[in-house]
Design a protein that fits this description.
The protein has 493 residues and is an alpha/beta fold. The chain folds into two domains: 280 residues, no CATH class; 171 residues, no CATH class. The protein contains 20 helices and six strands. Strands 2-1-5-6 form a four-stranded mixed beta sheet, sandwiched between helices. A two-stranded antiparallel sheet has the order 3-4. It starts with a helix and ends in a 6-residue tail after the last helix.
């Protein structure tokens, strides 16, 4: 055991005692926060997009303007709701929110909010602004659309993002031509299309003799959908975000499990190849038994992986605490309380158990492959089939986010190499106990066989200098043609 401990400590310190390891670990909360904040930051950093509407029929221009005003009203309402969360229901906020029902205009809302909240309202960026067209044709507007000319606005020179031409054909069909140099941005086009379509439908109902108020009233009819769970008490059977969290976290744990196992197993592969090519393994064989080297490497890199998991968990907790102060979810649940409920032992204990078996299986396989190769290029030929095999649970985990009770997942969970990841995602669905025990036993037996086989391959690669064609030679012993060629090489019979 002393040899195993020394080898494990050597492997652990070779990674953990480096500055790069801790720098990369410290960067995790930074990237987590960036992942949470970057979409909102990019959205706020985008400038307000100016566009013009050339409507030959004069039927749709005002409708598009009304849609923009409605979206602005919704933006202001969300802002006021956030201000109420921070300052409470103060007089200016209550008055401004009440005035939003009729939306007297942004200037009136700013007056009601007062100077205390003026900066917050001024910083509320518009997505789109409809401006007066400097020209009336596409060819004449081309310099503005290409950025060669700027619009003269009260705010100063600004660029023109798009031009919308709406024309009615002789057969009363409406055609929209959308001109923009940014061909990937589709929010404005979708907004214009929806506004024109709704106007066409309303006009169609009016022409058929149906009152607009009645059409509007009917179009706003929608059922109230409440998800209920029969597993909860009847008086509290409503499904909340907190009820869905275990399913989401289980799939996330499955992805995390796959990422950790794959990354640390790859560490074993590269370290063995480097030590074999530099003759370091020969020196280790003079000081420790082969089995101690094998187990020491497995335990050492396993300790590295636990360090990674603990670091990622702390990073996630810190990120959740920072984000939880500003993020609210439905039904009054704090974002931080939802993250805290993810620390359920029903998920954490299986996670670490599945990690151990998943790591031992793939770590042993990668360790054995590394012992047969002299270079990383040589290892890639052996790793390619394994990488394709490892992609199967990733695809299955993405599918599990939509349907964790799929029969396909139930079948895949019985394949030992996939069991840790698939069963991790299926646990919140309460699979039958016979499946949990059965898949665990099959995985345990497979792990033992892989460890035994990996030990023999590791011995052949390290002590007998077997190469990447080891499996080819081993299978060749059982091929009738190979046996015959060895017994009579002259005739080939």
């Amino acid at each position: 055991m002393r040899h195993v401990y020394l080898i494990a400590r050597r492997e652990y310190l070779s990674y953990v005692a480096t500055i790069g390891f801790w720098v990369s670990l410290a960067m995790i909360p930074v990237f987590l926060l960036l992942g949470m904040m970057l979409p909102a930051f990019l959205d706020r950093a985008s400038p307000t997009r100016n566009f013009v509407v050339i409507d030959t029929s004069a039927r749709f221009e005002q409708v598009i303007r009304d849609v923009i005003d409605e979206r602005r009203q919704e933006q202001i309402e969300r802002l006021i709701d956030k201000l109420i969360l921070v300052d409470g229901e103060t007089g200016p906020l209550i008055e401004a929110k009440a005035a939003l029902d009729d939306f007297p205009g942004e200037e009136k809302i700013a007056e009601l909010l007062g100077s205390r909240y003026a900066a917050a309202l001024d910083g509320l960026r518009r997505d789109f602004r409809m401006v007066k067209a400097p020209e009336q044709t596409a060819s004449a507007l081309r310099p503005w659309l290409l950025g060669e000319k700027q619009l003269d606005t009260p705010r100063g020179p600004e660029s023109l993002h798009a031009a919308v031409f709406i024309d009615i054909k002789p057969d009363n069909e409406v055609e929209i031509q959308y001109w923009s140099a940014n061909i990937n941005e589709g929010k404005l086009l979708n907004m214009v299309r929806d506004a024109v379509r709704n106007k066409m439908r309303m006009d169609g109902f009016t022409n058929a003799g149906i009152e607009r108020s009645l059409v509007k009233q009917i179009s706003q009819l929608t059922p109230e959908v409440i998800s209920m769970s029969p597993e909860k008490a009847e008086d509290d059977a409503k499904v909340t975000a907190k009820d869905r969290l275990p399913y989401i976290m289980a799939v996330m744990f499955g992805f995390l499990l796959w990422s950790v196992v794959f990354s640390v197993a790859n560490m074993l592969l590269t370290s063995v190849i480097e030590e074999k090519s530099n003759k370091i393994l020969d020196s280790l064989l003079c000081a420790a038994p082969l089995r101690a080297i094998l187990m020491g490497k497995l335990f050492g890199v396993a300790a590295v992986s636990f360090t990674l998991i603990i670091g990622w968990a702390l990073a996630g907790w810190v990120s959740a605490m920072l984000a939880g102060s500003v993020i609210e979810v439905s039904e009054g649940h704090k974002f931080t309380s939802l993250i805290a409920s993810a620390g359920d032992l029903k998920l954490l204990i299986p996670f670490f158990a599945y990690f151990v078996f998943g790591y031992l299986m793939f770590g042993s396989i990668f360790l054995a492959l590394g012992s047969l190769c002299e270079t990383l290029q040589e290892a890639q030929t052996l790793m390619t089939p394994l990488i394709f095999l490892l992609m199967v649970p990733v695809i299955a985990l993405m599918f599990a986010m939509q349907d964790p009770e799929s029969p396909v997942l139930a079948v895949l969970s019985w394949i030992p190499l996939f069991t840790p990841y698939i069963m991790m995602a299926r646990l919140p669905t309460d699979p039958p106990m016979i499946e949990i025990i059965g898949t665990a036993l099959v995985m345990l037996a497979t792990t033992a066989l892989i460890l035994l086989a990996a030990g023999k391959v590791f011995q052949a690669g390290v002590m007998h200098q077997a190469g990447s064609d080891y499996f080819k030679k081993m299978l060749g012993k059982y091929m009738p043609g190979r046996k015959a060629s060895k017994t009579n090489p002259k005739t080939g019979a």
